[in-house]
Amino acid sequence: MNQLSEFHRERVRAVLSASPLVPVIAINALEDAVPLCQALVDGGINVLEITLRTEHGLKAIEEVRRAIPDAWVGAGTVTSVAQYRQVEAAGAQFVITPGVTESILEFGVTSEAPLLPGVSTVSELMMGYALGYREFKFFPAEVAGGVPALKAFSGPFGDVTFCPTGGIRRDTAKNYLALGNVQAVGGSWLTPADAVACKDWPRITEIARGSLADL
């Protein structure tokens, strides 16, 4: 059985250490991709998770990689190996999944784009742990137990680090980041739908800057 390389772990750690906040970005209009992501970067956030929740995800990854080369641009909501291959081809620098399958975990071990696998239970965590994964997305964080669950995970898995996502708000992010096993937090509050619909990029920048200041 292949094991996750130290190279992959270093890449994932680099992403998680680059920003304590990881925006969950859904692109509904392709022309919004670059200005939205630039607004986040202008606000101090340089890790961008562009999800495959819309038809524009793949193209948005390509365009943002070209336009903002200094940011970490990755793919979220990847649910199959086929999608994993697609986002790699689009230039994603990391991949985040909402959950895990054996095939995705095994593919991630040797992929060009390192994987942050999503887990919500100890059993799922142990699947990845057996292959060498030590960094995970905890999703959906609030529904799956929130801060108390992550505290409990730290007992048997003291060498595991999480990026919780799902139901976390601007005013609760710092509660997660106060935990020793949390390095970053994901959230959609950084890109409110009304601001994106109005193309209010200065507001996005201010939300990003203010959210970082709150931590």
UniProtKB/TrEMBL annotation:
Annotated EC: 4.1.2.14
Enzyme class name: lyase
Catalysed conversion reaction: 2-dehydro-3-deoxy-6-phospho-D-gluconate = D-glyceraldehyde 3-phosphate + pyruvate
Pathway: Carbohydrate acid metabolism; 2-dehydro-3-deoxy-D-gluconate degradation; D-glyceraldehyde 3-phosphate and pyruvate from 2-dehydro-3-deoxy-D-gluconate: step 2/2
Superkingdom in the source lineage: Bacteria
InterPro entries reported in the protein's UniProt record: Aldlse_KDPG_KHG, Aldolase_TIM, KDPG/KHG_AS_1, KDPG/KHG_AS_2
Record Pfam families: Aldolase
PROSITE patterns xrefs: ALDOLASE_KDPG_KHG_1, ALDOLASE_KDPG_KHG_2
Entries under Gene3D superfamilies matching the protein: Aldolase class I
CDD domains (UniProt xref): KDPG_aldolase
Keywords of the record: Carbohydrate metabolism, Lyase, Schiff base
GO molecular function terms attached to this record: 2-dehydro-3-deoxy-phosphogluconate aldolase activity
PANTHER family the UniProt entry points to: 2-DEHYDRO-3-DEOXY-6-PHOSPHOGALACTONATE ALDOLASE-RELATED, 2-KETO-3-DEOXY-6-PHOSPHOGLUCONATE ALDOLASE
UniProt similarity note: Belongs to the KHG/KDPG aldolase family.
Quaternary structure, from the entry: Homotrimer.
Protein name from the UniProt record: 2-dehydro-3-deoxy-phosphogluconate aldolase
Species: Marinobacter salinus
